[in-house]
Amino acid sequence: MYLSTEHIKFLHTVGKNCTDEEIILLVGTSKNKVTHLHRVPNISKRNKDRYIPDPEIMFNVLSSTKLINENADLYFIGVYHTHPNGYSLPSEIDIKNANYDCFYLIYGQKDCKLQAYKQDRKNNVIFEKESIHEYEESY
Ligand SMILES: [Zn+2]
Q: Which residue segments constitute the domains of the chain, with CATH numbers given?
């Protein structure tokens, strides 16, 4: 998957500085290339170690994508969340609660790493490691 240099920097900054699990939705103009980030409030009562995106805002973002709106121009690419005091590895709950076939990005404060995982249940792909390619944004 492809992320711009600026977006990678931003995801690292949010990850480094968060005290609760932060959630950002990744949207793009093609299936693998992220061009928009949408920060979504975490409504979990245990938001230091769980993430539940605010459903209304989640729905609004998804409505701008082909995932639920065939007339949309954008693709829903994935979900980023952070592990304050944790590693950039998916927890059992992350895997259990991953409802979408998309990319899951995790930032871990313990290893200061941003890692991507791919889920595609139709093809039996569950949280398989995915590389993040960097692209330069051209204005
Ligand atoms: Zn997690």
A: 2-135 (3.40.140.10)
Cβ pair 138, 4 in contact under 8 A = no
Centre of ligand 1 to C-alpha 10, Å, is 18
Gap from CA of 4 to ligand 1 centroid (Å): 23
What pTM was estimated for this model as a whole?
A: 0.95
Whole-angstrom CA distances from 19 to 14, 29, 90, 92, 110 are: 10, 31, 18, 21, 13
Ligand 1: distance of its center to the CA of 139 in Å?
Answer: 34
| pLDDT by 10s per residue, the chain, length 139 | 999 999 999 999 999 999 999 999 999 999 999 999 999 999 999 888 889 999 999 999 999 999 999 999 999 999 999 999 999 999 999 999 998 999 999 999 999 999 999 999 999 999 999 999 999 986 6
